[in-house]
Amino acid sequence: MFVPHKNPFAPHSRRSFLRGLAGAATASLGLSTRSFGKRSPTGGKGRERPNVLFIMSDQHNARALGKIGNGEVLTPTLDALAKEGMQFTSAFCQVPQCAPSRYTIWTGKHPRSHGLVRNGLAENMREVTIGELFKAEGYRTANIGKHHMVESPKAHGFDFVADAGGHTEYWNKVRQAKGGEFVDWIALRSKMVGSANVSNSEHLAGHLADGAIEFLRTPEEKPFCLWLSFYGPHRPIIPSAEFVKRYDPDKLSLPPNLHYEARDLPRALADARKTMSLTDELHRQCLATYYGYVSQIDYNIGRVLEALERSGQAENTIVVYTSDHGEMMSEHGVWTKFNLAYDATVRVPLLIRYPQEIPADRRSDALVGLYDLLPTLCAQSGIAIPAAVQGSNLAPLWSEEKPQWRTSIVAEIGDPKGYPGLCQMARSSEAKYIKHQTGQRVTEQLFDLKSDPWEIENLAGQANHSQTLTQLRQVLEQFEADVPRQPFPPQAPGERRER
Ligand SMILES: [Ca+2]
Hints:
Elements: H1 16-19, E1 36-37, E2 47-48, E3 51-58, H2 76-84, E4 86-88, E5 91-92, H3 98-107, H4 111-114, H5 130-136, E6 140-145, E7 160-162, H6 167-178, E8 183-187, E9 193-196, H7 204-217, E10 224-233, H8 241-244, H9 267-275, H10 280-310, E11 317-323, H11 343-346, E12 347-348, E13 350-353, E14 362-364, E15 368-369, H12 373-380, H13 396-399, E16 409-413, E17 422-427, E18 431-438, E19 441-448, H14 466-482
Helix pairs in contact: 7-10
Bound molecules: calcium ion.
Residues 58-59, 98, 234, 324-325 line the site of calcium ion (CA).
């Protein structure tokens, strides 16, 4: 239920669960009390309300970046965006799966609260989304590209919608136009990774960027909130061949956690390894293709940012880049994603540029989540943050010298009743606890991220780490107590739930 604050600029109280975190020295994070003038031809009081250009990709492992990542991926646009704004190096999704994670960004809430806990469910239309919030404040709202919702983004407050008919439909048209197969497939099960013999302008990534550029060319008096969402580098990993050719597979590094044996691997990972045994050569070819896709998206983001610059709106536009979750990307020996909580899939790239507010070349290691983006964008745009929002405004991380911030963050995926069960993570900056539950059976993982950033050695059974284990278990218990699973509201006639 949308309950606006009486005073939209009044300090926003943190949720009790954040206050209760083990060892957390949390305090209320106040919204800045600044005046926003409504945009008008005669000029308003204070500054103009900013535009929002929210750019996201699908399944981008946060290490797969250039200077701001593992250094092996060519991402000059994103490197520059980080230089002009702020990079969040410890950003996490609240669920490593497409639809629920996207709905978390749109609502600022954990999946268990907004109810869209897994792919295949329809969204709860009683939730208030970013589209509706900005539209209600007079913004021109647009959604270009992947949304993964059952309902059209129009039903979520986005006035202009262009989704290219979905991934499959677009590529089928290309296949038809090319008179047959246009991808040189290499590996990863069947027809999942390969070089597409199409130019960037024929590619879905180029097509979506064209849509955004067209949108930016037609300015209006109203500020805009544009959601641009690429389908890649999610599989099928099929960038244009010219981007794959930028990489020599033999020169790419394999992750240090590609090969290791452990007796207590989570079931989802052990099963995935059995079905996906790639040679090192194939891993390298997959990396080259995946990196090529990231580079192609980077190139197209560059085109969109150029169009923003040409429109004269860059100074007054908040640009966000993130992804709904990561990709295993050879880590732990596998590709894609599962009911797991390694950083490969729960950590995401997150960059925010807003020249009027965020000092250039900033970097934060604070634990932030995708559920923080909605309250951040609302606060920066002078829009009241709905009371039910669970994330926090990120502004103190760039505006305060010693911001007080959460000391742990939670993510979860799955259901204890289904295969391969429920997987929950409680993570601090130094350690990660993962609880796997199938039926009544519980197994645990604990990683010391300082000495073992690749999450290889499970310390859950070791006595000298029992204190950390207890603390992070408590974080999860507190989360369970403070953020109970919401029973989905009774269905109104005509409302759909299961797709
Ligand atoms: Ca996804």
